[in-house]
Amino acid sequence: xxxxxxxxxxxxxxxxxxxxxxxxxxxxxxxxxxxxxxxxxxxxxxxxxxxxxxxxxxxxxxxxxxxxxxxxxxxxxxxxxxxxxxxxxxxxxxxxxxxxxxxxxxxxxxxxxxxxxxxxxxxxxxxxxxxxxxxxxxxxxxxxxxxxxxxxxxxxxxxxxxxxxxxxxxxxxxxxxxxxxxxxxxxxxxxxxxxxxxxxxxxxxxxxxxxxxxxxxxxxxxxxxxxxxxxxxxxxxxxxxxxxxxxxxxxxxxxxxxxxxxxxxxxxxxxxxxxxxxxxxxxxxxxxxxxxxxxxxxxxxxxxxxxxxxxxxxxxxxxxxxxxxxxxxxxxxxxxxxxxxxxxxxxxxxxxxxxxxxxxxxxxxxxxxxxxxxxxxxxxxxxxxxxxxxxxxxxxxxx
Amino acid sequence: xxxxxxxxxxxxxxxxxxxxxxxxxxxxxxxxxxxxxxxxxxxxxxxxxxxxxxxxxxxxxxxxxxxxxxxxxxxxxxxxxxxxxxxxxxxxxxxxxxxxxxxxxxxxxxxxxxxxxxxxxxxxxxxxxxxxxxxxxxxxxxxxxxxxxxxxxxxxxxxxxxxxxxxxxxxxxxxxxxxxxxxxxxxxxxxxxxxxxxxxxxxxxxxxxxxxxxxxxxxxxxxxxxxxxxxxxxxxxxxxxxxxxxxxxxxxxxxxxxxxxxxxxxxxxxxxxxxxxxxxxxxxxxxxxxxxxxxxxxxxxxxxxxxxxxxxxxxxxxxxxxxxxxxxxxxxxxxxxxxxxxxxxxxxxxxxxxxxxxxxxxxxxxxxxxxxxxxxxxxxxxxxxxxxxxxxxxxxxxxxxxxxxxxxxxxxxxxxxxxxxxxxxxxxxxxxxxxxxxxxxxxxxxxxxxxxxxxxxxxxxxxxxx
Lengths: 399, 466
Ligand SMILES: Cc1cc2nc3c(=O)[nH]c(=O)nc-3n(C[C@H](O)[C@H](O)[C@H](O)COP(=O)(O)OP(=O)(O)OC[C@H]3O[C@@H](n4cnc5c(N)ncnc54)[C@H](O)[C@@H]3O)c2cc1C
Description:
The complex is a heterodimer.
Chain A: E1 4-13, H1 17-28, E2 34-38, H2 65-78, E3 82-85, E4 88-94, E5 97-102, E6 105-116, E7 120-122, E8 138-140, H3 141-149, E9 158-162, H4 166-177, E10 181-186, E11 200-201, E12 204-210, E13 217-222, E14 227-231, E15 234-237, E16 241-243, H5 246-250, E17 275-277, H6 280-283, H7 288-306, E18 318-320, E19 324-328, E20 340-344, E21 348-349, E22 352-357, E23 360-366, E24 370-371, E25 377-379, E26 394-398
Parallel strand pairs in A: 1-2, 1-6, 2-3, 6-17, 8-15, 9-10, 9-15, 10-11, 18-26
Antiparallel strand pairs in A: 4-5, 5-6, 7-16, 12-13, 13-14, 19-20, 20-25, 21-24, 22-23, 22-26
Helix pairs in contact in A: 1-2, 1-7, 3-4
Chain B: E1 2-4, E2 13-19, H1 23-32, E3 39-42, E4 59-60, H2 71-90, E5 94-95, E6 99-103, H3 106-121, E7 128-131, H4 132-138, E8 148-152, E9 156-158, H5 160-173, E10 177-179, E11 184-188, E12 193-197, E13 200-209, H6 215-221, E14 230-239, E15 250-253, E16 263-266, E17 272-275, E18 279-280, H7 291-304, E19 313-323, E20 330-334, E21 339-343, H8 349-366, H9 396-401, E22 408-410, E23 415-416, H10 417-424, H11 433-440, H12 453-462
Parallel strand pairs in B: 1-10, 2-3, 2-13, 3-10, 6-15, 13-21
Antiparallel strand pairs in B: 4-9, 5-9, 6-8, 7-8, 11-12, 12-13, 14-17, 14-18, 14-19, 16-17, 20-21, 22-23
Bound molecules: flavin-adenine dinucleotide.
């Protein structure tokens, strides 16, 4: 078979905010050939389809997703990154060798460092086990944004949004701009924020979809037993993110059961020497700026690896206790230097957080705000210096 | 050669008309296409295989557990052999994985010898009972409590979508007229018969009723009241491709008092299927899934393969079997009326389809249909949807000859623009996104369109269709 074999220094899979930021920083620091592969025709990742403001760090209301994506692409190209779009990494041919497909043919690319920056997706209706018929008009925010912005396809006339978090509101606004009426937003949680003019149903779940051919309505049920059907021809399942972890799993890279992304240390090293993971591939949806910051922060560790720094053995695991659901990084061979991200499955009103190791308290802190499940808590890293590298797992709990 | 989806139907009388372009009706049309006759294949839907045929468990059965001596037993055994050969010749993906009927309690374990004996009476002699240890070593992820199993090495999984499409494609290429969106509402029996359809009248000398769930209703239009179809719903859950390594065989349940039960099986598309349920209903359109059905499947699945439940679900769907209350097919010839009913093709119709077709042509001959001059049909090369066989995105030579096969559109399923283009230009083109999915796997993966949905829709819509 005519498969081409090539070598590069750093191979980044995914040209979203995380991958581009890492590539730019690594290339500027003299990492050699830094190549980014992107399966889409255009680089920039999810922000390309987010036609709303608030991108950047700190968030800038006037900075829209497509412009943010363009800047990230330009920065990477200016740094000398080789950016290749329309190229899909389909699997592994060795510990640091990826197989790719593109219109130019098949390749095997071996790198000295591989960085997984493959992003995340929303769980669709089927993965959420919503029963009923299988009509058209059932979308995720991702599909909705692309169909509206990249293809100018009409959404329906009346849409219900499942979820009441920032991404749900963006979906509702995008629908409005397209002339679709957002008839309701619903969330199983006791609170959420909708848009003015859009009824918000809390403590409510979708129990079935109705309609043949096209959606005609969604059946809903409130926690107190009240139930009904909302007539609509479109339903958008928003939020509920899961890392696109296929490559990581196919490469035998250990995943964290909480994030479902690769298990990493504070320097974004996975359990496989030479393989790093950053951005939403690690933990599901965070703001683009957080993903980009992870990319930038991982670059020094990538460079250190290129110059022969040994790959550390994983340190003590970090284990969140219910209702906490995940934390990154996932293990700490060295103290953390950046905030740790932590999420819960239920809303936490002014939570008191604690960290213990082998029964020994390491840290506690009360957060003065209400924390919804769609937002991460940023834990300061200082206390991680108190972790005993030889000790047992570090337990995170909330009271 | 033509496929029509709207407008009036051609005039003059067809020699034979087949109502229903499911797997059975399409197989019959294909078998008839070998004869020098004028043939029509009609379906109420906008696509072939859009009824029960698209939503089944996709197993190419040996027939080991049929009722010995029944017509179904004979046609399943014969059909299984025919379809396996046809699939190999025409590029329909089949994986001969073999089945294990796993016994989880004493009663099930005690039933294995009689099942092995029944297999023998159905002419299948390769089934044998294996120990718990052997089952465990062959299926290391099974849940605790396995007592043994019946090994049925001849069972396979097959692509149900490609099968129906191959039959219809071959039939159309050999001159059969396929009329879609063409529901038959009334029949005036005569010579020729006059069918009133949603697209106007159609005349035909011989008539075959392969209308699946509606076969009883068509039968009544011709004055027969032999059987009633009771839809038996089967809900199924399909788990993501990353679950595929958890299971190596088709894991069949040991049938008990409550019917055939829930199985776990790899699909030829590289995923894992769990199901089906068995619920008798009276609504022939009730192809929705239910919370209770899904909860039941998850409970059963957890016992069979606990790790499966941690995997992502890519699809949930339901099919309706055409049950009749009888334990056999309801295939009835009415030679004086030049009419054959193919009813009650419940849960083995995919497997038996080619044998049913041959049997039906024999029955038509009894009604005076001239069946001499049969010719072999041009073999096909169907696009490969099977995960165990080379797919275009992995084929360097193919991509070199046409770069569109290197342009992946649906990332989860690795479907290329070249394949979508080919499907849109094929003999029996898709009329909807679902039809396109059944021809290419586009949008059949874990993201269900998050990434590719808009582009796939744009490609479908950019194609001006008849
Ligand atoms: C859950 C489940 C699991 C199964 N598993 C297997 C398996 O593993 N292996 C196997 O071999 N079989 C299996 N089967 C059975 C198999 O799917 C069926 O036996 C087969 O699909 C029957 O084919 P058919 O053509 O008779 O019916 P259908 O596929 O329903 O086709 C009938 C067609 O007739 C059309 N039609 C109806 N009325 C009219 C009208 N008035 N005018 C025009 N058109 C009309 C319909 O639109 C439809 O397209 C399973 C079935 C179910 C439900």
